[in-house]
DNA sequence: AATGCATATATTTTGTAAATTATTTTTTAT
DNA sequence: ATAAAAAATAATTTACAAAATATATGCATT
Protein backbone atom coordinates (compact mmCIF):
# COMPACT_ATOMS: atom_id res chain seq x y z
CA UNK A 1 0.00 0.00 0.00
CA UNK A 2 2.89 2.29 0.66
CA UNK A 3 4.31 1.15 -2.62
CA UNK A 4 6.05 3.49 -5.00
CA UNK A 5 6.87 6.06 -2.35
CA UNK A 6 10.54 6.20 -3.29
CA UNK A 7 11.77 8.05 -6.33
CA UNK A 8 14.58 6.01 -7.80
CA UNK A 9 14.40 7.49 -11.26
CA UNK A 10 14.99 5.91 -14.67
CA UNK A 11 13.72 2.67 -16.08
CA UNK A 12 12.76 0.60 -13.08
CA UNK A 13 10.70 -1.56 -15.42
CA UNK A 14 10.21 -4.95 -13.90
CA UNK A 15 13.69 -4.68 -12.48
CA UNK A 16 14.44 -5.28 -8.86
CA UNK A 17 15.48 -2.43 -6.63
CA UNK A 18 18.97 -3.85 -6.33
CA UNK A 19 19.30 -3.86 -10.11
CA UNK A 20 18.24 -0.24 -10.37
CA UNK A 21 20.73 0.78 -7.72
CA UNK A 22 23.42 -1.24 -9.47
CA UNK A 23 22.98 0.40 -12.85
CA UNK A 24 22.74 3.83 -11.26
CA UNK A 25 25.96 3.32 -9.34
CA UNK A 26 27.71 1.89 -12.39
CA UNK A 27 26.75 5.06 -14.26
CA UNK A 28 28.09 7.26 -11.49
CA UNK A 29 31.37 5.35 -11.41
CA UNK A 30 31.79 5.53 -15.19
CA UNK A 31 31.12 9.27 -15.10
CA UNK A 32 33.87 9.59 -12.54
CA UNK A 33 31.57 10.92 -9.81
CA UNK A 34 33.64 9.16 -7.20
CA UNK A 35 37.30 9.75 -6.49
CA UNK A 36 39.68 6.88 -7.07
CA UNK A 37 39.97 4.73 -4.01
CA UNK A 38 36.99 6.42 -2.40
CA UNK A 39 35.06 4.30 0.00
CA UNK A 40 31.42 3.63 -0.72
CA UNK A 41 29.22 3.51 2.36
CA UNK A 42 26.09 1.41 1.91
CA UNK A 43 24.20 3.51 4.43
CA UNK A 44 24.95 6.81 2.67
CA UNK A 45 24.05 5.40 -0.71
CA UNK A 46 20.85 3.95 0.71
CA UNK A 47 19.91 7.34 2.08
CA UNK A 48 20.82 9.03 -1.22
CA UNK A 49 18.56 6.72 -3.20
CA UNK A 50 15.87 6.51 -0.56
CA UNK A 51 16.00 2.75 -0.15
CA UNK A 52 17.16 0.44 2.59
CA UNK A 53 20.64 -1.02 2.89
CA UNK A 54 19.93 -4.53 1.59
CA UNK A 55 19.40 -3.70 -2.10
CA UNK A 56 22.34 -1.30 -1.96
CA UNK A 57 24.52 -4.00 -0.51
CA UNK A 58 23.25 -6.33 -3.22
CA UNK A 59 24.21 -3.78 -5.86
CA UNK A 60 27.66 -3.22 -4.38
CA UNK A 61 28.41 -6.92 -4.27
CA UNK A 62 27.26 -7.27 -7.84
CA UNK A 63 29.51 -4.42 -8.93
CA UNK A 64 32.40 -5.98 -7.05
CA UNK A 65 31.80 -9.28 -8.84
CA UNK A 66 31.80 -7.45 -12.15
CA UNK A 67 35.09 -5.79 -11.32
CA UNK A 68 33.76 -2.24 -11.10
CA UNK A 69 34.69 -1.85 -7.47
CA UNK A 70 36.69 -3.78 -4.94
CA UNK A 71 35.39 -5.39 -1.79
CA UNK A 72 37.58 -6.14 1.19
CA UNK A 73 36.38 -8.32 4.03
CA UNK A 74 34.89 -6.19 6.78
CA UNK A 75 36.53 -3.15 5.33
CA UNK A 76 33.90 -1.98 2.92
CA UNK A 77 33.76 -1.24 -0.78
CA UNK A 78 36.21 0.95 -2.65
CA UNK A 79 36.45 2.32 -6.15
CA UNK A 80 39.23 0.40 -7.86
CA UNK A 81 42.57 2.09 -8.39
CA UNK A 82 44.20 0.01 -11.11
CA UNK A 83 47.97 -0.25 -10.89
CA UNK A 84 50.23 -0.20 -13.94
CA UNK A 85 50.61 -3.96 -13.68
CA UNK A 86 46.87 -4.46 -13.59
CA UNK A 87 46.47 -2.33 -16.69
CA UNK A 88 49.15 -4.35 -18.46
CA UNK A 89 47.38 -7.55 -17.44
CA UNK A 90 44.03 -6.33 -18.64
CA UNK A 91 45.45 -5.24 -21.97
CA UNK A 92 47.12 -8.61 -22.38
CA UNK A 93 43.85 -10.48 -21.94
CA UNK A 94 42.05 -7.91 -24.08
CA UNK A 95 44.45 -8.64 -26.91
CA UNK A 96 43.87 -12.34 -26.54
CA UNK A 97 40.09 -11.95 -26.67
CA UNK A 98 40.22 -9.60 -29.64
CA UNK A 99 42.43 -12.01 -31.55
CA UNK A 100 39.99 -14.78 -30.74
CA UNK A 101 37.09 -12.65 -31.97
CA UNK A 102 38.83 -11.78 -35.23
CA UNK A 103 39.69 -15.39 -35.92
CA UNK A 104 36.06 -16.23 -35.44
CA UNK A 105 34.80 -13.33 -37.55
CA UNK A 106 37.03 -14.37 -40.44
CA UNK A 107 35.87 -17.96 -40.06
CA UNK A 108 32.25 -16.83 -40.15
CA UNK A 109 32.87 -14.64 -43.20
CA UNK A 110 34.45 -17.59 -44.99
CA UNK A 111 31.64 -20.01 -44.20
CA UNK A 112 29.00 -17.37 -44.94
CA UNK A 113 27.55 -17.20 -41.43
CA UNK A 114 28.31 -13.49 -41.28
CA UNK A 115 27.27 -10.96 -43.90
CA UNK A 116 30.33 -9.01 -45.18
CA UNK A 117 28.17 -5.88 -45.09
CA UNK A 118 28.19 -6.11 -41.32
CA UNK A 119 31.74 -4.78 -41.46
CA UNK A 120 30.40 -1.48 -42.80
CA UNK A 121 29.35 -0.69 -39.26
CA UNK A 122 33.00 -0.71 -38.30
CA UNK A 123 33.78 1.79 -41.05
CA UNK A 124 31.03 4.05 -39.77
CA UNK A 125 32.35 3.88 -36.23
CA UNK A 126 35.87 4.59 -37.35
CA UNK A 127 34.77 7.65 -39.33
CA UNK A 128 32.57 8.95 -36.53
CA UNK A 129 35.58 8.84 -34.30
CA UNK A 130 37.71 10.96 -36.63
CA UNK A 131 35.35 13.92 -36.73
CA UNK A 132 33.63 15.89 -34.00
CA UNK A 133 36.20 15.09 -31.39
CA UNK A 134 36.25 18.62 -30.00
CA UNK A 135 32.71 18.94 -28.71
CA UNK A 136 32.48 15.52 -27.13
CA UNK A 137 32.88 14.84 -23.46
CA UNK A 138 35.38 12.33 -22.21
CA UNK A 139 32.82 9.59 -21.59
CA UNK A 140 31.44 9.84 -25.13
CA UNK A 141 34.88 9.65 -26.69
CA UNK A 142 35.77 6.60 -24.67
CA UNK A 143 32.44 5.01 -25.48
CA UNK A 144 32.89 5.59 -29.20
CA UNK A 145 36.35 4.12 -29.04
CA UNK A 146 35.09 1.17 -27.05
CA UNK A 147 32.23 0.52 -29.47
CA UNK A 148 34.65 -0.27 -32.26
CA UNK A 149 36.19 -3.13 -30.36
CA UNK A 150 32.93 -4.27 -28.81
CA UNK A 151 31.39 -4.49 -32.26
CA UNK A 152 34.11 -6.82 -33.51
CA UNK A 153 33.59 -8.94 -30.41
CA UNK A 154 29.86 -9.08 -31.13
CA UNK A 155 30.48 -10.16 -34.72
CA UNK A 156 32.23 -13.24 -33.38
CA UNK A 157 28.80 -14.47 -32.28
CA UNK A 158 30.01 -15.83 -28.95
CA UNK A 159 28.02 -14.42 -26.00
CA UNK A 160 30.45 -15.82 -23.46
CA UNK A 161 33.35 -14.11 -25.19
CA UNK A 162 31.33 -10.90 -25.21
CA UNK A 163 30.54 -11.05 -21.51
CA UNK A 164 34.18 -11.71 -20.68
CA UNK A 165 35.26 -8.75 -22.74
CA UNK A 166 32.70 -6.57 -21.00
CA UNK A 167 33.82 -7.53 -17.54
CA UNK A 168 37.37 -6.80 -18.61
CA UNK A 169 36.37 -3.27 -19.58
CA UNK A 170 34.77 -2.78 -16.17
CA UNK A 171 38.05 -3.56 -14.47
CA UNK A 172 39.63 -0.32 -15.63
CA UNK A 173 36.81 2.24 -15.68
CA UNK A 174 38.11 3.65 -12.42
CA UNK A 175 41.48 4.20 -14.06
CA UNK A 176 40.38 6.06 -17.15
CA UNK A 177 41.77 9.50 -17.09
CA UNK A 178 40.76 12.77 -18.68
CA UNK A 179 43.53 13.54 -21.14
CA UNK A 180 44.18 16.96 -22.55
CA UNK A 181 42.52 17.75 -25.88
CA UNK A 182 45.81 18.16 -27.74
CA UNK A 183 46.98 14.79 -26.56
CA UNK A 184 43.67 13.36 -27.57
CA UNK A 185 43.71 14.76 -31.08
CA UNK A 186 47.02 13.16 -32.02
CA UNK A 187 45.85 9.96 -30.49
CA UNK A 188 42.69 9.90 -32.56
CA UNK A 189 44.74 10.13 -35.75
CA UNK A 190 46.86 7.12 -34.88
CA UNK A 191 43.86 5.23 -33.62
CA UNK A 192 42.00 5.89 -36.85
CA UNK A 193 44.77 4.42 -38.96
CA UNK A 194 45.14 1.43 -36.70
CA UNK A 195 41.42 0.76 -36.71
CA UNK A 196 41.47 0.96 -40.49
CA UNK A 197 44.22 -1.67 -40.64
CA UNK A 198 42.16 -3.92 -38.39
CA UNK A 199 39.07 -3.57 -40.57
CA UNK A 200 41.14 -4.34 -43.67
CA UNK A 201 42.46 -7.50 -42.10
CA UNK A 202 38.93 -8.69 -41.43
CA UNK A 203 37.57 -7.64 -44.81
CA UNK A 204 40.39 -9.42 -46.65
CA UNK A 205 39.85 -12.42 -44.41
CA UNK A 206 43.56 -12.31 -43.71
CA UNK A 207 44.13 -13.47 -40.15
CA UNK A 208 47.88 -12.84 -40.17
CA UNK A 209 47.30 -9.20 -41.11
CA UNK A 210 44.53 -8.87 -38.50
CA UNK A 211 46.76 -10.42 -35.85
CA UNK A 212 49.62 -8.01 -36.41
CA UNK A 213 47.44 -4.91 -36.64
CA UNK A 214 45.66 -5.79 -33.42
CA UNK A 215 48.97 -6.34 -31.66
CA UNK A 216 50.28 -3.00 -32.90
CA UNK A 217 47.11 -1.23 -31.83
CA UNK A 218 46.97 -2.82 -28.39
CA UNK A 219 50.64 -2.10 -27.72
CA UNK A 220 50.21 1.58 -28.57
CA UNK A 221 46.97 1.80 -26.62
CA UNK A 222 48.66 0.27 -23.59
CA UNK A 223 51.44 2.84 -23.77
CA UNK A 224 48.88 5.64 -23.79
CA UNK A 225 46.95 4.13 -20.89
CA UNK A 226 50.11 3.79 -18.82
CA UNK A 227 51.10 7.35 -19.65
CA UNK A 228 47.65 8.56 -18.53
CA UNK A 229 48.00 6.65 -15.30
CA UNK A 230 51.43 8.15 -14.62
CA UNK A 231 50.08 11.66 -15.33
CA UNK A 232 47.44 11.40 -12.65
CA UNK A 233 49.44 10.56 -9.52
CA UNK B 1 18.82 -36.16 1.80
CA UNK B 2 19.56 -36.66 5.46
CA UNK B 3 18.40 -33.50 7.12
CA UNK B 4 21.45 -33.73 9.29
CA UNK B 5 23.38 -30.81 10.59
CA UNK B 6 25.98 -29.25 8.35
CA UNK B 7 28.95 -27.93 10.27
CA UNK B 8 29.57 -24.60 8.64
CA UNK B 9 31.87 -23.41 11.40
CA UNK B 10 34.67 -25.78 10.41
CA UNK B 11 37.60 -23.65 9.48
CA UNK B 12 35.41 -20.63 9.02
CA UNK B 13 38.03 -18.31 10.44
CA UNK B 14 37.54 -14.77 9.27
CA UNK B 15 34.98 -15.95 6.77
CA UNK B 16 31.49 -14.58 6.69
CA UNK B 17 28.47 -16.85 6.86
CA UNK B 18 27.60 -16.06 3.28
CA UNK B 19 31.08 -17.13 2.18
CA UNK B 20 30.80 -20.42 4.03
CA UNK B 21 27.44 -21.12 2.45
CA UNK B 22 28.85 -20.18 -0.94
CA UNK B 23 31.78 -22.58 -0.79
CA UNK B 24 29.61 -25.36 0.60
CA UNK B 25 27.08 -24.93 -2.19
CA UNK B 26 29.83 -24.71 -4.81
CA UNK B 27 31.15 -28.04 -3.51
CA UNK B 28 27.72 -29.62 -3.68
CA UNK B 29 27.22 -28.40 -7.24
CA UNK B 30 30.65 -29.67 -8.35
CA UNK B 31 29.94 -33.04 -6.78
CA UNK B 32 26.74 -33.21 -8.79
CA UNK B 33 24.46 -33.30 -5.75
CA UNK B 34 21.86 -31.31 -7.62
CA UNK B 35 20.15 -32.37 -10.81
CA UNK B 36 20.71 -30.24 -13.89
CA UNK B 37 18.17 -27.48 -14.08
CA UNK B 38 17.06 -28.07 -10.53
CA UNK B 39 15.75 -25.08 -8.76
CA UNK B 40 17.50 -23.96 -5.61
CA UNK B 41 15.15 -22.63 -2.95
CA UNK B 42 16.82 -20.16 -0.61
CA UNK B 43 14.47 -21.09 2.20
CA UNK B 44 15.21 -24.83 1.94
CA UNK B 45 18.94 -24.23 1.81
CA UNK B 46 18.73 -21.87 4.75
CA UNK B 47 16.90 -24.54 6.76
CA UNK B 48 19.39 -27.19 5.67
CA UNK B 49 22.37 -25.11 6.79
CA UNK B 50 20.63 -23.71 9.84
CA UNK B 51 21.07 -20.07 8.89
CA UNK B 52 18.74 -17.33 7.76
CA UNK B 53 17.86 -16.51 4.19
CA UNK B 54 20.03 -13.43 3.74
CA UNK B 55 23.46 -15.15 3.72
CA UNK B 56 22.02 -17.90 1.53
CA UNK B 57 20.73 -15.34 -0.92
CA UNK B 58 24.10 -13.63 -0.82
CA UNK B 59 25.80 -16.95 -1.61
CA UNK B 60 23.40 -17.73 -4.45
CA UNK B 61 23.91 -14.34 -6.05
CA UNK B 62 27.65 -14.74 -5.75
CA UNK B 63 27.48 -18.13 -7.41
CA UNK B 64 25.31 -16.70 -10.15
CA UNK B 65 27.86 -13.95 -10.76
CA UNK B 66 30.59 -16.57 -10.98
CA UNK B 67 28.59 -18.52 -13.52
CA UNK B 68 27.95 -21.56 -11.35
CA UNK B 69 24.22 -21.16 -11.41
CA UNK B 70 21.71 -19.04 -13.25
CA UNK B 71 19.44 -16.45 -11.72
CA UNK B 72 16.18 -15.37 -13.28
CA UNK B 73 14.27 -12.35 -12.05
CA UNK B 74 11.67 -13.35 -9.49
CA UNK B 75 11.93 -16.91 -10.66
CA UNK B 76 14.69 -18.17 -8.46
CA UNK B 77 18.05 -19.79 -8.98
CA UNK B 78 18.68 -22.81 -11.18
CA UNK B 79 21.63 -25.06 -11.78
CA UNK B 80 22.96 -24.23 -15.22
CA UNK B 81 22.27 -26.59 -18.09
CA UNK B 82 24.88 -25.72 -20.67
CA UNK B 83 23.82 -26.21 -24.26
CA UNK B 84 26.11 -27.56 -26.96
CA UNK B 85 26.58 -24.04 -28.26
CA UNK B 86 27.53 -22.74 -24.84
CA UNK B 87 30.09 -25.50 -24.47
CA UNK B 88 31.55 -24.65 -27.88
CA UNK B 89 31.71 -21.00 -26.89
CA UNK B 90 33.39 -21.73 -23.60
CA UNK B 91 35.95 -23.96 -25.28
CA UNK B 92 36.65 -21.28 -27.84
CA UNK B 93 37.44 -18.70 -25.18
CA UNK B 94 39.35 -21.30 -23.18
CA UNK B 95 41.58 -21.90 -26.16
CA UNK B 96 42.18 -18.20 -26.55
CA UNK B 97 43.15 -17.78 -22.91
CA UNK B 98 45.42 -20.83 -22.94
CA UNK B 99 47.18 -19.56 -26.03
CA UNK B 100 47.63 -16.21 -24.33
CA UNK B 101 49.05 -17.92 -21.24
CA UNK B 102 51.50 -20.00 -23.27
CA UNK B 103 52.73 -16.99 -25.18
CA UNK B 104 53.36 -15.27 -21.89
CA UNK B 105 55.03 -18.30 -20.30
CA UNK B 106 57.44 -18.59 -23.23
CA UNK B 107 58.14 -14.87 -23.04
CA UNK B 108 58.87 -15.18 -19.32
CA UNK B 109 61.13 -18.18 -19.88
CA UNK B 110 63.07 -16.25 -22.50
CA UNK B 111 63.53 -13.17 -20.36
CA UNK B 112 64.33 -15.26 -17.29
CA UNK B 113 61.32 -14.17 -15.24
CA UNK B 114 60.19 -17.76 -14.90
CA UNK B 115 62.38 -20.61 -13.71
CA UNK B 116 62.41 -23.45 -16.31
CA UNK B 117 62.19 -25.91 -13.40
CA UNK B 118 58.66 -24.67 -12.77
CA UNK B 119 57.63 -26.71 -15.80
CA UNK B 120 58.51 -29.88 -13.88
CA UNK B 121 55.26 -29.44 -12.00
CA UNK B 122 53.45 -29.95 -15.28
CA UNK B 123 55.33 -33.21 -15.85
CA UNK B 124 54.32 -34.37 -12.38
CA UNK B 125 50.68 -33.53 -13.01
CA UNK B 126 50.72 -35.28 -16.35
CA UNK B 127 52.20 -38.44 -14.84
CA UNK B 128 49.81 -38.40 -11.89
CA UNK B 129 46.97 -38.35 -14.33
CA UNK B 130 48.18 -41.44 -16.20
CA UNK B 131 48.26 -43.74 -13.18
CA UNK B 132 45.68 -44.48 -10.51
CA UNK B 133 42.73 -43.56 -12.64
CA UNK B 134 40.64 -46.50 -11.44
CA UNK B 135 40.25 -45.65 -7.78
CA UNK B 136 39.55 -41.97 -8.21
CA UNK B 137 36.12 -40.44 -8.12
CA UNK B 138 34.88 -38.30 -10.95
CA UNK B 139 35.52 -35.00 -9.18
CA UNK B 140 39.14 -35.89 -8.45
CA UNK B 141 39.80 -36.90 -12.04
CA UNK B 142 38.33 -33.70 -13.36
CA UNK B 143 40.27 -31.69 -10.82
CA UNK B 144 43.54 -33.34 -11.78
CA UNK B 145 42.83 -32.69 -15.42
CA UNK B 146 41.92 -29.10 -14.67
CA UNK B 147 45.06 -28.54 -12.59
CA UNK B 148 47.25 -29.07 -15.62
CA UNK B 149 45.69 -26.21 -17.50
CA UNK B 150 45.28 -24.02 -14.45
CA UNK B 151 48.97 -24.41 -13.69
CA UNK B 152 49.98 -23.15 -17.12
CA UNK B 153 47.65 -20.22 -16.65
CA UNK B 154 49.27 -19.46 -13.29
CA UNK B 155 52.74 -19.55 -14.83
CA UNK B 156 51.72 -16.68 -17.08
CA UNK B 157 51.77 -14.49 -13.96
CA UNK B 158 48.62 -12.58 -14.84
CA UNK B 159 46.02 -12.70 -12.04
CA UNK B 160 43.33 -11.22 -14.24
CA UNK B 161 43.87 -13.92 -16.84
CA UNK B 162 43.70 -16.49 -14.06
CA UNK B 163 40.45 -15.19 -12.66
CA UNK B 164 38.89 -15.13 -16.12
CA UNK B 165 39.95 -18.69 -16.75
CA UNK B 166 38.49 -19.72 -13.41
CA UNK B 167 35.12 -18.15 -14.08
CA UNK B 168 35.11 -19.87 -17.44
CA UNK B 169 35.55 -23.24 -15.75
CA UNK B 170 32.62 -22.48 -13.44
CA UNK B 171 30.36 -21.96 -16.40
CA UNK B 172 30.38 -25.64 -17.28
CA UNK B 173 30.58 -27.50 -13.96
CA UNK B 174 26.87 -28.22 -14.19
CA UNK B 175 27.46 -29.88 -17.53
CA UNK B 176 30.29 -32.18 -16.58
CA UNK B 177 29.13 -35.73 -16.87
CA UNK B 178 30.18 -38.97 -15.29
CA UNK B 179 31.62 -40.99 -18.16
CA UNK B 180 32.01 -44.74 -18.12
CA UNK B 181 35.37 -46.03 -16.92
CA UNK B 182 36.27 -47.61 -20.25
CA UNK B 183 35.60 -44.37 -22.06
CA UNK B 184 37.68 -42.57 -19.51
CA UNK B 185 40.68 -44.86 -19.82
CA UNK B 186 41.08 -44.32 -23.55
CA UNK B 187 40.60 -40.64 -23.03
CA UNK B 188 43.36 -40.45 -20.47
CA UNK B 189 45.82 -41.98 -22.95
CA UNK B 190 45.11 -39.38 -25.59
CA UNK B 191 45.07 -36.61 -23.06
CA UNK B 192 48.43 -37.70 -21.69
CA UNK B 193 50.07 -37.51 -25.11
CA UNK B 194 48.47 -34.16 -25.86
CA UNK B 195 49.56 -32.72 -22.56
CA UNK B 196 53.07 -33.94 -23.23
CA UNK B 197 53.10 -32.13 -26.56
CA UNK B 198 51.97 -28.96 -24.83
CA UNK B 199 54.72 -29.21 -22.22
CA UNK B 200 57.30 -29.77 -24.96
CA UNK B 201 56.17 -26.68 -26.78
CA UNK B 202 56.68 -24.60 -23.65
CA UNK B 203 59.97 -26.21 -22.71
CA UNK B 204 61.40 -25.65 -26.19
CA UNK B 205 60.07 -22.10 -26.10
CA UNK B 206 58.46 -22.84 -29.44
CA UNK B 207 55.20 -20.90 -29.65
CA UNK B 208 54.15 -22.32 -33.02
CA UNK B 209 54.40 -25.86 -31.63
CA UNK B 210 52.55 -24.86 -28.46
CA UNK B 211 49.83 -23.18 -30.50
CA UNK B 212 49.14 -26.20 -32.63
CA UNK B 213 49.24 -28.70 -29.76
CA UNK B 214 46.81 -26.61 -27.73
CA UNK B 215 44.46 -26.34 -30.69
CA UNK B 216 44.58 -30.10 -31.24
CA UNK B 217 43.97 -30.76 -27.57
CA UNK B 218 41.11 -28.32 -27.24
CA UNK B 219 39.41 -29.60 -30.37
CA UNK B 220 39.53 -33.20 -29.13
CA UNK B 221 38.44 -32.17 -25.65
CA UNK B 222 35.50 -30.28 -27.11
CA UNK B 223 34.44 -33.34 -29.06
CA UNK B 224 34.46 -35.40 -25.88
CA UNK B 225 32.54 -32.80 -23.94
CA UNK B 226 29.89 -32.59 -26.64
CA UNK B 227 29.68 -36.37 -26.78
CA UNK B 228 29.17 -36.47 -23.00
CA UNK B 229 26.45 -33.89 -23.27
CA UNK B 230 24.70 -35.83 -26.02
CA UNK B 231 24.86 -39.00 -23.93
CA UNK B 232 22.87 -37.37 -21.20
CA UNK B 233 20.24 -35.73 -23.41
C1' DA C 1 57.13 14.02 28.97
C1' DA C 2 56.59 10.67 25.45
C1' DT C 3 55.55 6.28 23.73
C1' DG C 4 53.29 1.89 23.80
C1' DC C 5 49.68 -1.15 25.33
C1' DA C 6 45.03 -2.06 26.73
C1' DT C 7 40.41 -1.10 27.13
C1' DA C 8 36.23 1.26 25.80
C1' DT C 9 33.39 3.41 22.49
C1' DA C 10 31.63 4.43 18.14
C1' DT C 11 31.08 3.10 13.47
C1' DT C 12 30.21 -0.25 10.10
C1' DT C 13 29.24 -4.64 8.47
C1' DT C 14 26.72 -8.89 8.86
C1' DG C 15 22.67 -11.70 10.23
C1' DT C 16 17.61 -12.40 11.58
C1' DA C 17 12.83 -12.10 11.31
C1' DA C 18 8.96 -10.16 9.55
C1' DA C 19 6.43 -7.60 6.08
C1' DT C 20 5.69 -6.62 1.29
C1' DT C 21 5.35 -7.52 -3.48
C1' DA C 22 5.21 -10.41 -7.44
C1' DT C 23 4.02 -14.74 -9.54
C1' DT C 24 1.79 -19.03 -10.13
C1' DT C 25 -1.86 -22.10 -9.22
C1' DT C 26 -6.36 -23.15 -8.02
C1' DT C 27 -11.05 -22.27 -7.74
C1' DT C 28 -15.26 -20.45 -9.23
C1' DA C 29 -18.44 -18.36 -12.23
C1' DT C 30 -19.90 -17.43 -16.82
C1' DA D 1 -13.92 -24.73 -21.49
C1' DT D 2 -12.28 -20.23 -20.60
C1' DA D 3 -11.45 -16.30 -17.94
C1' DA D 4 -11.24 -13.83 -13.83
C1' DA D 5 -10.41 -13.68 -9.06
C1' DA D 6 -8.55 -15.38 -4.92
C1' DA D 7 -5.29 -18.04 -2.40
C1' DA D 8 -0.85 -20.00 -1.98
C1' DT D 9 3.96 -19.80 -2.78
C1' DA D 10 8.22 -17.71 -2.99
C1' DA D 11 11.31 -13.75 -3.87
C1' DT D 12 12.42 -9.15 -2.45
C1' DT D 13 12.78 -5.50 0.76
C1' DT D 14 12.66 -3.43 5.24
C1' DA D 15 13.75 -2.65 9.93
C1' DC D 16 16.08 -4.19 13.60
C1' DA D 17 19.69 -6.76 16.34
C1' DA D 18 24.36 -8.78 16.79
C1' DA D 19 29.06 -9.09 15.77
C1' DA D 20 33.31 -7.21 14.38
C1' DT D 21 36.66 -3.67 13.51
C1' DA D 22 38.84 0.73 13.87
C1' DT D 23 39.57 4.66 16.55
C1' DA D 24 40.12 7.16 20.61
C1' DT D 25 41.17 7.60 25.35
C1' DG D 26 43.66 6.64 29.46
C1' DC D 27 47.09 4.39 32.14
C1' DA D 28 51.59 2.54 32.86
C1' DT D 29 56.26 2.37 31.85
C1' DT D 30 60.67 4.21 30.22
UniProtKB/TrEMBL annotation, chains A, B:
Keyword Protease: no
Source superkingdom: Bacteria
Ranges of residues in domain HTH gntR-type: 15-82
Key words of the record: DNA-binding, Transcription, Transcription regulation
CDD domains assigned to the protein according to its UniProt record, in alphabetical order: WHTH_GntR
InterPro entries given in the database record: GntR_C, TF_FadR/GntR_C, Tscrpt_reg_HTH_GntR, WH-like_DNA-bd_sf, WH_DNA-bd_sf
An MF annotation (GO) of this entry: DNA-binding transcription factor activity
Protein name according to UniProt: DNA-binding transcriptional regulator, GntR family
Organism: Microvirga guangxiensis
Lineage of origin: Bacteria, Pseudomonadati, Pseudomonadota, Alphaproteobacteria, Hyphomicrobiales
Amino acid sequence: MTAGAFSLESGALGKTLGESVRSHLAGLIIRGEFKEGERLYPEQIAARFGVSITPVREALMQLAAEGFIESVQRRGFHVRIPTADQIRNVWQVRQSLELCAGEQVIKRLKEGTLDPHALDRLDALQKAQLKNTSHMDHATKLELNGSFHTTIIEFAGNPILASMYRSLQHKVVGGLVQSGLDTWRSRVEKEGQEHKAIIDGLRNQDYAAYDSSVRTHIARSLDDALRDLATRQ
